[in-house]
Specification:
The chain is mainly beta. It has strands at 3-7, 10-13, 18-25, 31-39, 46-52, 57-59, 67-72, 77-82, 91-99, 103-106, 110-115.
């Protein structure tokens, strides 16, 4: 059984930075895609950033130039560096890994709150 554990959320002032981490544990053959999503109150969950196994990336327009996704395959870990945070970035952030032979797995979520 594969589990994802997130860390790094918290409260930060607008303009500040946070770094989220998501580590996978368990029986893992290959992680094809590592992604980050977020869900604000009353809104649908949306893709923030994703990275394929070859290093290709995809970002939501709202975070381009401010957020950076990276991955450490040896540690089965994804990171989301968030700079120049805005109050509208406030949400619960979830990681999602797509694993060969398993499919998509979600983390438990971590709260990010940006104060104005």
């Amino acid at each position: 059984q594969v589990q994802l554990v997130e860390s790094g959320g918290g409260l930060v002032q607008a303009g500040g930075s946070l770094r989220l981490s998501c580590a996978a544990s368990g029986s893992i053959f290959r992680i094809n895609v590592m992604g980050w999503y977020r869900q604000a109150p009353g809104k649908q969950r949306e893709l923030v950033a994703a990275m394929g196994s070859g290093g290709s990336t995809n970002y939501a327009d709202s975070v381009k130039g401010r957020f950076t996704i990276s991955r450490d395959n040896a540690k089965n870990t994804a990171y989301l560096q968030m700079n120049s945070l805005k109050p509208e970035d406030t949400a619960v952030y979830y990681c999602n890994f797509v694993l060969s032979g398993v499919g998509g797995i979600w983390g438990q979520g971590t709260q990010v709150t940006v104060s104005s």
